């Protein structure tokens, strides 16, 4: 019996939540989610493409998140890693120089305006 069917949302703190939501919309195409109060009419649910999701606890002292104070890192699946990286570079988004490649896909890392590193994953078909 499956008790959980998937991830229903990702929630994180931000100094300026509206600005962060707009940055993710404008740079990664993630819609601004419905929220209590301060709605602008641009909110909608994010209907994702079905695909693999990794649930991966890491050791407390991991350097994988690129910021020792960061407790969580989000991994976004992308169809074209090079195109997403080019778009992010064009906006001045900090991006780690290396791309890692494995049998199951390619990975890169970037940082949002509030210093949260996230991972981009282009799965192998």
UniProtKB/TrEMBL annotation:
Pfam families: Glyoxalase_6 (PF18029)
Domain VOC: 6-123
Coiled-coil intervals, chain numbering: none
InterPro entries on file: Anthracycline_SecMetBiosynth (IPR052164), Glyas_Bleomycin-R_OHBP_Dase (IPR029068), Glyoxalase_6 (IPR041581), VOC_core (IPR037523)
PROSITE patterns in UniProt: VOC
Annotated PANTHER family: GLYOXALASE (PTHR33993:SF5), GLYOXALASE-RELATED (PTHR33993)
Protein name: VOC domain-containing protein
């Amino acid at each position: 019996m499956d008790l959980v069917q998937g991830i229903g949302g990702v929630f994180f703190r931000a100094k300026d939540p509206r600005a962060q939501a707009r940055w993710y919309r404008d740079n990664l195409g993630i819609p601004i989610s419905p929220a209590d109060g301060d709605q602008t009419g641009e909110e909608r649910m994010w209907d994702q493409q079905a695909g693999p999701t990794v649930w991966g606890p890491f050791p407390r002292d991991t350097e994988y998140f690129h910021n020792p104070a960061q407790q969580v890192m989000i991994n976004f699946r992308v169809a074209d890693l090079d195109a997403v990286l080019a778009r992010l570079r064009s906006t001045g988004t900090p991006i780690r120089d290396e791309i890692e490649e494995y049998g199951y896909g390619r990975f890169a890392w970037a940082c949002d305006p509030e210093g949260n590193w996230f991972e981009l994953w282009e799965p192998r078909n």
